[in-house]
Amino acid sequence: MSSNVSAKHPTSEGVLIIGAGIAGLTLAQALRRHGVPCTVFERDEFPEVRNQGWGVSIHSTLITWEAHILPEIYDRVCEAQVNPAIGPDEVRGVPWINGATGQVEQSVPESKRLRLRRDGIRRALMEGLNIKWGKRLVNIEKFKGGIRAEFTDGSTVLGNALVGADGSTSIVRKFLAPTTHKLHRLPINAVGCALTMSEEQVNYFKDHVDPLYFMGTHPETDTFCQGAGSGSDIY
């Protein structure tokens, strides 16, 4: 990363956010609400190039989201609730079941919480943002008063600051911490799978456990499970 860059550059694109995942888009929406110019750069060629995974629970950060994201964007985010019958303002806990008996043994304390589809959150957070697709970062150069980012397609942009939101294999992190950027991997393996259930089975959990979200473990196999969804989609 060089510091000998001339100040003769194109017009600044504000804060440069590398990565159009949920974190990068959330930051961009917060900057947008507070009037800070920004541009998001994503290595994928288009939004639907990859599966966005299952669901995500948001609870302790909801107050922050409401305070720093435009109301219309927050409303769109809430529409991604995995079970539309559950209102965004409901207060609820998270039951923990015994995987052998199906009985609820304890519960996470009640609070306002959302269980959202990742793809739905991402679509909502994209609205109104300046996102440039097919931009894979290859170099960062600092200079007095700004930063220059270079991409594999040969294009370069100037910004006031640069934020890395490009995941666990972050290229930005490699530039910022060239000797310490590698992840520390824990000696733990996890295998996840989805279980297809009948409507009757789904309704049992909705009626007797929780219609939005639950977790549990099996005392003999040490298997962890979680349930989340409306019964018609995979989360």
List the uncertain runs. Answer: 1-9, 230-235
Main CATH class of the largest domain: Alpha Beta
- CATH superfamily heading of the largest domain: FAD/NAD(P)-binding domain
Strand content: 25-35%
* SSE run: EHEEHHEEEHEEEEEHHEE
Rg to the nearest angstrom?
21 Å
Q: How does the overall form come out from the CA principal axes? A: globular
Please summarize the sheet with the most strands. 4 strands, parallel
Helix content bin: 10-25%
Please state how the strands of the largest beta sheet are arranged side by side: 7-2-1-11
Query: What is the straight-line distance between the termini?
Result: 40 Å
Q: What is the CATH architecture annotation of the largest domain? A: 3-Layer(bba) Sandwich
Number of helices: 6
Count of spatially separate domains: 2
Structural class: alpha/beta
CATH topology of the largest domain: FAD/NAD(P)-binding domain
Cofactor: FAD
Protein name: FAD-binding domain-containing protein
InterPro entries: FAD-bd, FAD/NAD-bd_sf
Keywords: FAD, Flavoprotein, Monooxygenase, Oxidoreductase
